[in-house]
Write a structure and sequence with these properties.
432 residues; alpha+beta; OB fold (Dihydrolipoamide Acetyltransferase, E2P); BirA Bifunctional Protein, domain 2; 2 domains; nine-stranded mixed beta sheet; five-stranded mixed β-barrel; 13 helices; 17 strands; binds 4-amino-1,4-dioxobutan-2-aminium adenosine-5'-monophosphate; binds magnesium ion
């Protein structure tokens, strides 16, 4: 007998086929009629058991089924009698693979701590399933854009000897006789070596920040896509980022219509962002925030409340560019027009979703970069290889890093980052 995916049921009308999956829900309509909602990952379908049309023993099995039991069912797909365009499945025979005891996640509202403790099961909920599908789309859309635009995938190491984003958020791990290693905060420095071979490269993987922040936007382990390109300068760096993000928006809207509905995310709010992004300098932004009554100085960074104000009146993301060198990473290139500033930009998403990208043109002058490393108090020994890149064929180059979960939060409209990664890692959570 042919085994089909639930999503394809409409292609097998009036044929006897087999589906396999889990019982999302079951309902007794009468002593002779029972409904199951069966899901298999590809989709959900209503399965109907009507006693007069099946063997008594098969109907008894349907009656025994509990929520989240696994099963395989032989039966016939047909048009749903009440919902045009939908299908249901007429049950003939049931094989129970595993009869589940009472499922801990019920219909009543559970608190976040309870659900996070049950994360391994919570992942099956319709909302979580929708988020995971959009995560899949966002991930591949980013890769599709980069692959189509001349970027080669170049994997950077996770165990590293040095910091890229400051030493305060480093996770340290014992490393044999060599002392300590650190979990990567970003593959950027390695990508800068990669472009000298391949021109344009990207990596995509987990990175780690020992962030003390317990906010809706911080994880200790999150996924980053770092991209880096030779001969690309500041303006073009922003253009690439904008094009990529707009490609992701369009891809999510076109591939995840169903999931956006489940998440009650209006695609029009995303579509509005598919227009030229805004560009503000850091200084302009500080002036704007001050005009709104925020007590902030010209050497300050932004927190969540400031990010919300920045995009409060904008449907599109806002680039904040040209930051004071004091508050940005050592590798950013000085602005030739003003050596107190660096050619870095953060991209702030609308609707309060905060910083989704950090990027910059990179310092390509050997001595300037070396002095920045010394000023940071870093051990030059570990950065010698990085400085070599400024000795052997240094070229202007730029790159950026997308926080995958931040971007997914914006696409899905999910307010807390813990829901957009399968197993969130936060300062107070490592289980499950
Ligand atoms: O701004 P960040 O720190 O930039 C870098 O690491 C650069 N080396 C990237 C590059 O130029 N290749 O991090 C990039 C993005 C942030 O904009 C944010 O979206 C996300 O990573 N991010 C976090 N996401 C979740 N939890 C955290 N603790 C995050 N910290 C940064
Ligand atoms: Mg940043």
């Amino acid at each position: 007998m042919q085994i089909i995916d639930i999503k394809d049921a409409g292609q097998y009308l009036q044929q006897t086929v087999k589906i396999r999956g889990w019982v999302r829900n079951q309902r007794k309509a009468s002593s002779k009629l029972r409904f199951l909602i069966v899901r298999d990952g590809s989709g959900d379908i209503q399965a109907v058991a009507f006693k007069p049309d099946m063997e008594e023993s098969e109907f008894e099995k349907v009656k025994a089924l509990t929520i989240e039991s696994s099963l395989s069912i032989c039966g016939i797909p047909r048009e749903h009698p009440n919902n045009p365009g939908e299908f249901e499945f007429v049950i003939q025979q049931v094989e129970i693979l595993n009869l589940a005891p009472e499922y801990p996640i019920g219909k009543k509202a559970h608190g976040p701590e309870f659900l996070l403790n049950q994360r391994h099961l919570w992942l099956r909920a319709p909302r979580q399933n929708a988020i995971l599908k959009i995560r899949h789309t966002v991930y591949y859309a980013i890769c599709e854009y980069l692959n189509a635009n001349g970027f080669y995938r170049f994997d950077s190491p996770i165990l590293t000897p040095n910091a890229s984003e400051g030493t305060t958020t480093l996770f340290e791990v014992p490393y044999f006789d060599l002392g300590s290693a650190f979990l990567s905060q970003s593959g950027q420095l390695y990508l800068e070596a990669g472009i000298m071979s391949l021109g344009r490269v990207y990596d995509f993987g987990p990175v780690f920040r020992a962030e003390k922040s317990k906010t809706r936007k911080h994880l200790t382990e999150f996924w980053m896509m770092d991209a880096e390109a030779a001969f690309v300068e500041h303006d073009e760096n922003l253009r690439i980022q904008e094009e990529l993000i707009r490609f992701v928006i369009n891809t999510v809207i076109s591939r995840n219509e169903k999931e956006l509905i489940i998440l009650e995310r209006n695609p029009e709010d995303l579509r509005k962002a598919d227009a030229p992004f805004q560009r503000w300098t850091h200084r302009q932004t500080i002036d704007f925030l001050r005009s709104k009554g925020v007590d902030i100085g010209y050497l300050d960074d932004f927190g969540a409340p400031e990010e919300e104000l920045i995009t409060a009146e904008s449907d599109v993301p806002v680039f904040i560019e040209k930051w004071p060198k004091e508050i940005k990473s050592f590798y950013m290139k000085r602005d030739p027009a003003n050596p107190d500033l660096v050619l870095g930009a953060d991209l702030i998403a609308p609707e309060g979703f905060g910083e989704i990208i950090g990027g910059s043109q990179r310092e390509d002058d050997h001595d300037l970069l070396m002095n920045r490393i010394i000023d940071e108090g870093y051990d030059l020994e570990f950065y010698q290889w990085f400085l070599d890149l400024r000795k052997f064929g240094s070229v202007p180059h730029s790159g950026f890093g997308i926080g995958l979960e931040r971007l997914i939060q914006w696409m899905t409209g999910v307010r807390h980052i813990r829901e957009v990664i399968p197993f969130p890692r936060m300062i107070n959570r490592i289980l499950p």
